[in-house]
């Protein structure tokens, strides 16, 4: 019997080989991968040992082998741990492999130690920002009324760093509107919005749609088109048309200048092998023309994250 991990590896290898001839002429920066190593003495806070698909080392060497044949030339790591020193662990790992062009770390605005920690990690040019939202038992909405939290996010913006918001729901979208009112100079990247199902109740849905459109008017807000695929009746559709209405909505609201590519690797393995994850959005954005594809796959990521080129094959404007 073939277990799920082996199946994913076989399927991914076949798909990768099939796509080799279709490798994009447009270079790709993947703005959302996770790095972790369960073999460390202290273990990892995520994923859990019970997760047979994910509980394996996710390191740049493994990612490069999957991604490079598909035309991916660089990646941004996004935190997968609330442990302070894991920010340094990621920076140390990234320093050894130039496919990593930056990391979005985990610090807590509003805490007395935030400014000291921000100064420490910001010294490293690979440290691009932090993530905050619906993870690690945190709630952005609850923090926005606290002056120190807002002052710390202003310090983040003054440092030229950005904020990713994590695991979307209607409350977090509403909070992001408030946040960008309070800290208008902060660049914000909304993660994984395609996976979020808008509220079914009419009033709540209208409020959500109004908030999303308001964010669409704010040039400092970007949307990461990540976690596009979904399970439906025991399968994961790989036809772009299944996802087209949701992608069209984001395209219509945020346009070609503020959508960016992210795979969510290796978490994406819960849905499909990496080549399938990429193929759906590659087909959609290639269909928008070469200029739009370039912006989605790498140009917009520079505006959102201000990452620095580390390899000859990594593009810069």
The spatial strand order of the largest sheet comes to 1-2-3-4-5-6-7-8
* Percent helix range: 40-55%
Let me know the number of strands. Answer: 8
CATH level-four homologous superfamily name: Metal-dependent hydrolases
Overall average residue pLDDT: 93
Predict the CATH topology. TIM Barrel
What would the principal axes of the Cα set say about the shape? globular
User: How big is the Rg?
Assistant: 19 Å
Number of domains: 1
CATH class category label:
Alpha Beta
The span between the termini is: 49 Å
Give start-end ranges of low-pLDDT stretches.
1-24
Proportion of beta-strand residues: 5-15%
Would you kindly provide a written description of the structure presented here, covering whatever features stand out?
This protein has 317 residues and is of the alpha/beta class. It has one domain (31-305): Metal-dependent hydrolases (TIM Barrel, Alpha-Beta Barrel). The chain is built from eleven helices and eight strands. It has an eight-stranded parallel β-sheet. Helix 7 (170-182) runs parallel beside helix 8. The longest helix is centred in the N-terminal third of the chain and has 17 residues, at 4-20. The termini are far apart.
């Amino acid at each position: 019997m073939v277990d799920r991990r082996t199946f994913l590896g076989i399927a991914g290898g076949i798909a990768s080989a099939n796509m080799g001839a279709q490798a994009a002429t447009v270079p790709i920066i993947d703005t959302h991968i996770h790095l972790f190593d369960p073999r460390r003495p202290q273990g990892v806070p995520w994923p859990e040992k019970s997760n047979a698909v994910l509980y394996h080392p996710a390191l740049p060497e493994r990612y490069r082998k999957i991604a490079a044949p598909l035309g991916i030339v660089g990646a941004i790591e996004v935190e997968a741990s609330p442990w302070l020193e894991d920010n340094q662990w990621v920076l140390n790992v990234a320093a050894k492999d130039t496919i990593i062009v930056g990391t979005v770390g985990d610090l807590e605005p509003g805490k007395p130690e935030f400014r000291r920690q921000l100064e420490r990690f910001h010294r490293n040019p690979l440290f691009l920002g932090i993530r905050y939202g619906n993870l690690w038992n945190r709630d952005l909405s609850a923090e926005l009324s606290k002056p120190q939290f807002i002052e710390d996010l202003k310090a983040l913006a003054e440092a030229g760093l950005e904020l990713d918001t994590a695991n979307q729901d209607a409350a977090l979208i509403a909070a992001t509107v408030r946040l960008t009112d309070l800290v208008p100079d902060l660049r914000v990247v909304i993660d994984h919005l395609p996976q979020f199902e808008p509220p079914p109740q009419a009033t709540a849905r209208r409020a959500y749609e109004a908030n999303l459109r308001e964010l669409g008017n704010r040039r400092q807000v970007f949307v990461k088109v990540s976690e596009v695929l979904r399970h439906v009746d025991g399968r994961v559709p790989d036809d772009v048309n299944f996802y087209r209405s949701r992608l069209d909505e984001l395209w219509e609201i945020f346009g070609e200048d503020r959508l960016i590519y992210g795979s969510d690797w290796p978490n994406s393995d819960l849905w499909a092998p990496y080549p399938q994850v990429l193929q759906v959005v590659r087909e959609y954005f290639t269909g928008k023309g070469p200029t739009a594809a370039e912006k989605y796959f790498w140009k917009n990521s520079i505006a959102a994250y201000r990452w620095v080129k580390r390899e000859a094959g990594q593009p810069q404007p």
